[in-house]
Amino acid sequence: xxxxxxDLEVIIWEADNKKLQERNLPxxxxxxxxxxxxxxxIADLVTFKKCNSGYDGAFPYLKITVYELKKxxxxxxxxxxAIKYCRGIKSYMKKHKPNILFTIEIxxxxxxVDLSGDFIYLxxxxxxxxxxxxxxxxxxxxxxxxxDGINFINESSYDITNKGF
Length: 165
Fold this sequence. Notes:
By secondary structure, the protein is of the alpha/beta class. The chain has a single domain, classed as Trna Endonuclease, Chain: A, domain 1 (3-Layer(aba) Sandwich), CATH 3.40.1350. 25% of the residues lie in helices and 38% in strands. The protein has a six-stranded mixed sheet. A two-stranded parallel sheet has the order 4-6. A hairpin with a 5-residue loop joins strand 2 and strand 3. The longest helix is centred in the middle third of the chain and has 21 residues. It starts with a helix and ends in a 10-residue tail after the last strand.
């Protein structure tokens, strides 16, 4: 049986968030599948979660997560595709919901991560710090699908083996 990108999307869409968390995919909030973001394109999956920030939780905001799914390998083109969706979301929020604070997170999921270039260091460049109106983190997850079902592996903190110093 050939596993398709659509199969991955269906599994994540239909699964309960708690079940996905048990399989190591920390997904929270309301899921929207095949979200049309104006002329910026159609995102595979986007989640929206109401959060509170600050010491006393006095700053409510919306955490938006854009999931870009690939059946085989995720690389720079998938990241750039997700960035385009984030730009569309940012434009929409500025125009239609200017009083709502929001953060954006990108989660890229595929069977494997492209290790051939500098793309692998993106997870260290972005980190969650609640900078409103910006992309705060980029996360990579790989998956394996076998008789036991689907499992996800967080792929981050890449480093070269021979540092040269």
